[in-house]
Amino acid sequence: MKEASLDFRSGFIAIVGAPNVGKSTLLNRLLGEKISITSKKPQTTRNRILGVLHRKRSQMIFIDTPGIHRARRRLNVRIVEAAIAAIADADTILMLADAAHPDPAAETILVRRLARQRQPVILALNKIDRVEKPRLLEQMAQWRDRCRFEAIVPISALKSVQIERLLEAMETVLPFGPPLFPEDAVTDLPVRFIAGEIVREKIFRLTGEEIPYATAVTVEAFEEGRGQAGVTIRASIHVERESQKGILIGKGGGKLRQIREAAQSEIQKMVGVPVVLTLFVRVQKNWRQDTRALRKFGY
Ligand code: GDP
Ligand code: MG
Q1: Shared-domain flag, residues 205 and 85
Q2: DSSP E strands, the chain
């Protein structure tokens, strides 16, 4: 064995965790806002490379998992399948939990699933800036009983606390090997696609339980350098029923405005230039059961 091969580690890290635990915040913290606006590679699967972190002695490739939920309808089944596939492809799993607002139901589904995985799992207990120390220690002890983690690292993604410790913990479980991506690679996703995902995430966050799974987002136009704006984006939110359209739009258009503003500001942060986002809501009956429609929407 060549000695040089023991100097470097590289591999895929699947980030899993319930919505709102801080996955995006952590990724932004780790990768900065380095997503290239000119990236033009096509999006092929739901398992996306979110970013590549280049370190002195390692290369960490973060992959997204669309969230593990109980699947009832066809779309949900596919989302769960994609999450499990992403986990299967990973060398290491990074599970995030919210230490300030534990969510035992969601965590139990995840922990049960992860217990069957062969890869090392590292738990990051996030938002410790919001937790008293005794409560945190108690939680860490409980987690230790619940699942065999390679490491449990309390962090604050928002306040940048213990991030380096987390990276070191992940580094020690990655396989030895050369870098898998060139040094300038940050993500293989087109910004256009990420923009659609950001809109989807805001819908998820700002509407009730029944809405998110009934929606798909397509980006119809993504134009750079027009007028005052850096980027002009037009996207459609597809729903199944008029009633869902009503909920999404909200009283006096208030809900849609909230979604639009939140998404626009996040996309703007990502691309680093002014963004004008326009959203439309369209009704297409039963798109969730229609395989052709699913394919069109990228599932
Ligand atoms: P995701 O759904 O898992 O991607 O979660 P986000 O990264 O979007 O975070 C959800 C919310 O939690 C946002 O309002 C974040 O600002 C907040 N958040 C994330 N990390 C921390 C943290 O370390 N401390 C605190 N107090 N809030 C955080
Ligand atoms: Mg997120």
Answers
A1: no
A2: 9-16, 49-54, 58-64, 92-98, 121-126, 151-154, 216-224, 231-239, 275-283
